[in-house]
Amino acid sequence: MKLFSLLAVSALGLAAADLTNVRVIYLLPMSGGLDQYLAVRLSAGGLVQVATDAQKADAVLTDSIGPAFEQRLAELYAPKNADPNSKDKVGSDFARPAMKPLSHSRGNLFLVDRKTGNVLWSTSGRAKNNTPDALKSAADHIASKLEKDYKVK
Question: Do the Cβ atoms of 61 and 111 come closer than 8 Å?
């Protein structure tokens, strides 16, 4: 059990260290429009920049991971000269991936390194409902957690 605790603490330290390399974040659409409130809050905080172009981001913030997320990453970061007819590619609509939420959020958020696909940071934070006040409150809570964890190292 002590070994597990040591590994968990070490993993947290590595995750915090990895955040220092994240300067620009791209937000995928989230349930209830939470991404819009997070963009406002993160931009105002000044800790990171929020990109409207996924190509300029160091990491992606999403409320869902799994096959649908992996497909979205492949669409967003497909090589510009990719052959749309290739069987190895996701599809022929590389320039304009569908921009709707991947799923109904369960209240989890993940900051994923765009190059490695590794989860750098995660948290739980769900709005009580989809009213602007509840979404703003959830975004404030999530951004505060990210800022705190970002400054750990």
Answer: yes
Among candidate residues 90, 65, 95, the one with its CA nearest the CA of residue 80:
95
- Report the C-alpha gap between 91 and 93 in whole angstroms: 6
Give the pLDDT confidence of 8-43 residue by residue, as tens digits: 444 444 444 468 889 999 999 998 899 999 999 999
CB-facing half-sphere around the CA of 131: CA atoms within 13 A:
5
Give the predicted TM-score (pTM) of the model.
0.73
Contact indicator for 77, 57 with CB cutoff of 8 Å = no
Cβ-in-10-Å burial (0-12, 13-18, 19+) of 41 comes to: buried
**Residue 126 per-residue DSSP state:** -
In three-state secondary structure terms, 109 is: strand
87 is written with which tokens? Answer: 């069987």
Q: Which amino acid is at 42?
A: L
| CB of 93 closer than 8 Å to CB of 75 | yes
Q: Which two tokens stand for residue 97?
A: 């991936």
